[in-house]
């Protein structure tokens, strides 16, 4: 069960004009479950994405990057995305690249376009060969059920250890233009995106030029998926794709307008919702933790400290136990790698409770106050460094027995 | 129960001439257990140490560093060490420094020396005031039972979540001189030493000049305690102290001799044993894992990759499950931060089994071979980078349910 995160229902998810979605059961890892997703795009669509920085980036990531680069070099636009779960097609060498390209070629034949107009994605177990015949064999079934209101099925089709599908949808007014945006995401373990996340797809019906979309996807990722961590394990397959179908009335060709500023806020906001759903459904998560580091000399040092707290197994198990053993947070701050940190200027808050003041225990701090906050399912850790005006926020979850159970059993 | 690590017994531990050890029950956290240790040194002894780099380094660490600096500046030599468990005296600000200094002053009065001739150490819960009256009140009892063959009691007196005392002892021949060396260590969680470890003490009866001892302690720590990690949490209190009592026949005044080279090997070897005991007794540990990264362009990148593997919760839970889900190791290599890593030159071995070859799955690899190795309680992960001639080794353990249980319950 995810932390304070109600299941989205199909009726909540608005179709985005210019996108049709199909799914199929290929039996990649287990029978009788959706494991193939196809998203077919209108001719007017532009697509931009950010991908994992893991050096063992998966074959489909390499192919998707190459195919987007082909568009940037003047090639024909992207016509479809295809996603499989059950196998990451990572750590698979040349064979893996062949499999990803074969998947693109098969879908291109069905959609009457070129292979490089397809973006492939995979998620699942690493270091095992992709059963490419099963993937290719299931594509006609996915094409056969293409329709606009399949977003809920899409969210289900990309799940792995997720306990619930993740999706968000809204219609916003941007300077008088109604813009619909719907997105899905997945991921519950191996989550510490560093450029993007393990599969997020967000579509909007505005018309957005490629250059602007490239800027927009990076901004949105940096303020959403790139601020979450479950276990510090940056996946081999992380990808966040932003699709502007170009079917609505809003058209944006440069970043110098009120329209763009408002769109950026709205896109970042929905991307953040999708990212936070991943944390709420983190493997074994019982708490949703916001870590905010303020008054830093630069953003990098704020992020270092926030991630150091968010990754500490001792901090995470203390949250699981609702135990205000808060010295563990100071310890994690201390080893974050900010070498000139003067701890005597540092304050630590747990929600509204001032726990440590000027680097030592706040004389007025009562354990009962810490205990009261620790009982909650949503908690904010706030660190004030007293060094400057920069800040950073990271969202994470606790470390529970269930995390160990899930990851000791995942392949079985 | 620790991994393949038999309990030392008192008879195994040789006294080191020039050191007397006393202990007491101060009731700092719990009644009826040894929690105070005093080590009294001969006038001929030299002492050197390395300490945590955590910016929230504990008050006793600050005082010990200052008191060693006073010796280096020509002050009177160190006469005694005092250790308490049950409270780390970290995150305690000015009050904590006062408590550490008060402890030194009280022991100095009993031993008729100056307070700066005492080195204080603490281990236990962070962010709670040290009950200094209990510590000081227990010192006379510790002094009263000072004797040379108390090493086993000393190992017990410094335990926190350790399930067993850690100690090693041997007599070695160095160029015709018999040298006795006995050491103790503690630590089972919050273990990722970065300069030293959470309390290690090693005594030898050679006569070693201060400059040489400073070099020796750093070398030994860098090749032992600084190569272990349990949970990545670099403690606020890590300290590794090397004491040369000067009572034996071996005397070393500079580093340019066969005697020194042999002593360095012997001291590093016993330090490594003490460090590895900490991993074998890691919180909840069921496996002892050696991670070796070879053929790196420099040692730093080898260490980055080794620690990335050793800290990955996904890798650690796979070891706990004896599940050869070895793609998780490739993933951890990929996000280690070696930006120009060419994975197509990389091989991965699990003991003698070649799992990944040239960055992809070894075609000859059979899951049964991986499974066979994963069943073992001692496993070596070997990564060959194909980039150069440098290497690094890190020792770690798995992540089990018991780790979560221990750290969700530690303070209760």
Description:
Two copies of one chain form a homodimer. Chain A is 33% helix and 24% strand. Chain A is α+β, with helices and mostly antiparallel strands and 412 residues long. Chain A has a six-stranded mixed β-sheet. A five-stranded mixed β-sheet of chain A has the order 3-10-8-7-6, sandwiched between helices. Chain A is globular and about 70 Å long. Chain A has two domains: 10-280, L-amino peptidase D-ALA esterase/amidase (4-Layer Sandwich), CATH 3.60.70; 288-409, ArgJ beta chain, C-terminal domain (Ubiquitin-like (UB roll)). The longest helix of chain A has 23 residues, at 258-280. Chains A and B meet through helix 2, helix 8, helix 9, strand 15 and helix 11 of A and helix 2, helix 8, helix 9, strand 15 and helix 11 of B.
Work out the strand percent of chain A. Answer: 15-25%
Largest sheet of chain A: 6 strands, mixed
Largest interface: A-B, 71 and 71 residues
Q: CATH homologous superfamily of the largest domain in chain A, by name? A: L-amino peptidase D-ALA esterase/amidase
Largest beta sheet of chain A: what is the strand line-up? Answer: 15-14-13-16-12-17
Structural category of chain A is: alpha+beta
What is Rg of chain A? Answer: 22 Å
The coarse overall form of chain A would be: globular
What is the name of the CATH architecture of the largest domain in chain A? 4-Layer Sandwich
